[in-house]
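In response to the reviewer comment on reproducibility (Comment 2.3), we provide here a single inverse folding case reported in full, input and output, so that an independent group could reproduce the run without further information from us. The structure tokens appear first.
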């Protein structure tokens, strides 16, 4: 049986207090193998929160919740993985938060970041080194002045979706490389707006940007492929849309209502179709 002296207890208490003062609310989980589950929950704290989960293997689940937590930071790293799931929630007055999910050497994985009600926050998802059949979602509704970024490498049959709200200067970007049969979608509801989608070496892929109101801007690039579809919808205020497609049998649609307007579609190849509607 382990015995504790009074001095030992005093030292342990002092070290614990010192550690708490230096780095409040720090949580780290490392898991190696298959079929594991890791959950970190940090709520209602005046101190910054830091949470990190690392998993190596397949069929793993990682989940971080940071609620009512200003300046919180959450990171999930999953490697050598397939059929893994990673989710970060930073909600309910979790302003100026930062969330990152990275899944590498991976396929058929799912990554999701929810920052609803988290003003001035940023979210990044990277699915790399083979994100075949993977899915990435970022939700920043009711959260002004946020940044969202999704990158998928070697992303056959991949899906990337970003939803953003209004009342601030949000920005969203999706990059899919070697993106055959993939889909990318950005929905922005109001205020300053900015959105870009890039799909390279993409065949049979789709890109869609919907912007409803205020300053607007949208850019879609699809290069080096065929049978791709690009769609941009803008409803209100400054507007501006650029679509560039390189390859054959591609389609581009731009729809703009009200205010500034400006649309440009550039297509290089054979059998392409372009449509611009302005009202």
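Designed residues, in position order:
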């Amino acid at each position: 049986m382990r015995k504790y002296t009074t001095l030992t207890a005093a030292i342990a208490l002092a070290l614990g207090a010192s550690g708490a003062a230096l780095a409040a609310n720090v949580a780290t989980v490392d898991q190696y193998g298959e079929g594991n589950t890791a959950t970190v929950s940090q709520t209602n704290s005046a101190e910054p929160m830091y949470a990190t989960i690392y998993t190596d293997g397949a069929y793993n689940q990682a989940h971080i919740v940071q609620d009512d937590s200003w300046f919180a930071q959450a990171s999930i790293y999953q490697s050598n993985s397939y059929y893994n799931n990673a989710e970060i929630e930073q909600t309910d007055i979790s302003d100026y938060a930062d969330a990152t999910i990275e899944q590498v050497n991976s396929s058929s994985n799912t990554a999701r970041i929810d920052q609803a009600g988290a003003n001035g926050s940023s979210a990044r998802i990277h699915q790399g080194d083979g994100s075949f059949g993977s899915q990435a979602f970022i939700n920043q509704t009711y959260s002004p002045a946020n940044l969202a970024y999704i990158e998928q490498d070697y992303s056959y049959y991949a899906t990337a979706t970003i939803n953003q709200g209004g009342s601030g200067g949000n920005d969203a970007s999706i990059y899919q490389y070697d993106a055959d049969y993939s889909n990318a979608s950005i929905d922005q509801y109001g205020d300053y707006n900015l959105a870009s989608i890039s799909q390279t070496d993409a065949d049979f892929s789709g890109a869609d940007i919907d912007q409803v109101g205020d300053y607007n801007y949208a850019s879609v690039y699809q290069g080096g492929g065929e049978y791709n579809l690009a769609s941009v919808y803008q409803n209100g205020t400054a507007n501006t849309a650029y679509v560039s497609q390189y390859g054959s049998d591609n389609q581009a649609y731009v729809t703009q209502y009200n205010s500034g307007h400006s649309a440009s579609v550039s297509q290089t190849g054979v059998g392409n179709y372009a449509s611009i509607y302005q009202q």
